[in-house]
Amino acid sequence: MKFTGTDSYVATEDLMVAVNASIALQRPLLIKGEPGTGKTVLAHEVAKALGKNLIQWHVKSTTKAQQGLYEYDAVSRLRDSQLGDDRVHDISNYIVKGKLWEAFTADSSPVLLIDEIDKADIEFPNDLLQELDRMEFYVYETQQTIKAVNRPLVMITSNNEKELPDAFLRRCFFHYIKFPDRDTMQQIVDVHFPDIQRDLVREALNIFFEIRDVPGLKKKPSTSELLDWLKLLMVEALPVEILREKDPKKLIPPLHGALLKNEQDVHLFERLAFLSKRERT
Amino acid sequence: MFTNFFYELKKAKVPVSLREYLTLLEGMDAGVPGYRIDDFYYMSRCILVKDEKHLDKFDKVFGEVFKGLEFMREAEDAEIPLDWLQALAEKVLTDEEKKLVESLGGFEKLMETLKQRLEEQKKRHEGGNKWIGTAGTSPFGNKGYNPEGVRIGGEEKGRQGKAVKVWQNREYKNLDDTVELGTRNIKVALRRLRKFAREGAETELDISDTIRSTARNAGYLDIKMVAERHNKIKVLLFFDIGGSMDSHIKMCEELFSAAKTEFKNLEFFYFHNCLYEGVWKDNRRRHNDKTTTFQVLHTFPHDYKVIFVGDASMSPYEIVYPGGSVEHWNEESGEVWLKRTLDIYQKAVWLNPVPEKHWDYTPSIQIVRQIFTNRMFPLTLDGLDRAMRELNR
Fold it and tell me: Most exposed: A18, A253, B284, B319, by fewest CB within 10 Å?
């Protein structure tokens, strides 16, 4: 069982080794990288390539570790007791399973994606140490131990908003998705738009890497933005000439809204365009 | 098998533990990397390195330990540290210096030799009389004795004294917030600032309200929920960095480390000597990644508490006059910027690492103290305590 990328996802060699090592040694894999370099998509693609189910746990700032295991719905039990419902005698009726429980008891080993773990409270990763290490946890209400039948492949993504605790890191494998170089980027574009014009891509990539090189941009455009932009260019059926045009009046690339995501960046870019125009005249 | 590798990593300050080492062996045992050195490199990297900031150190150690394996490309070993070249680019020669350069066959020649040597040289160098490095006698490097030397980076101690203009790019170390030693006391002092409030999603059962409502509801349960308690305090921290602050760096690191864990809503910025129109968050990119002070003042609402940390020791011009800054031309004086900040944020203090008894001898400290209407406190536990009380009033 080896992951070698899919027909819709270009995996670099180091990424493949990292994924395969975490499969072989059954450790969680922590993925970091610039936003939009395909961290979340990786889990989808790994699941697809290995023919596994994907269980997604999307972490928010209010998410508690316990919610991933199970929740005891005491309030509805209390209400049921008031109304004289018979269900009330069995406590297991009020245990709501979380994503980890779901992943542990799945028939075949699934891929469990814990998305954006850095969004949660600082203590969140610490609360999951044992559960991810031993792949089991204890349900106090029903006094049973839930143990993983087939250890799921755990993938965790982080955007670096918070530092993760050392104890947690020690249990994970780590991979940092580098921003793809030009060749890899070309491959990625080829995979996503197989019948796009070659020269359109070349011009678009030129502009794209130029924009990324502009110093002081708040949010550099990344892979996903490039793909969106190319899609727009194709939908609008813009001819290549427009991209190639070096008319100083039109230095802002067409449909730039897909690449530059805040108005300061657009202003900065306009200012630079203005400056270079002045230099030429 | 790889014990040497493991210890070299530890020596290079890559945080690795026994656990990771055992995992690496387990991985080798399971035959994950096969028989390719590239795969071994990738696997050991993903097991041993847990943060992208250590990747560079790891690569270096890996290259050294497994040198015989011909894995690392030769060229990478000889890569020239970026800061050297940057400093080189910044170097502006005066006429006097240019004349001196003639003695080595002209500027062009000098630069050429320099480039040649940089290429030959493979490691950072200290001492010696040929290679580029620090404290040598070769014409290239820093703190050298050859008068026609080209200075690369670095800051001369002693000669500078009270600088009037320092245009040279200076590299400052980012504050390290991993210092744990001695931060506990500071944390306890900072704890005074805590203010709990219930905000956000209602997730907790409010027992007293539930009982009251249930009684009113003729005994039928009426559940009431409240939001969880959170520390609501919001803090904006401005750190003076570099120059005369270097001698206080340890104390500041401790404070920074404590504050970072204590306050969830903490925003910090760096400045140099006095607050002007720009502040920055990352010292390595301070020259091209500045935030305008106006943006900071407009972004954070007035209920933020503001803490300045700095020694306030500078020439009074730097505070009072436009253009007084040692690093750049400032349109408006530091005083204007400090007052502007104080107008918005009612709760603000200045923490000063200089002992309180010396304050009277430095005019600039007195000026800053006046601007802050006496809300300047020494950076001691007691001073911190007083400062927090002031912020909480």
Answer: B284
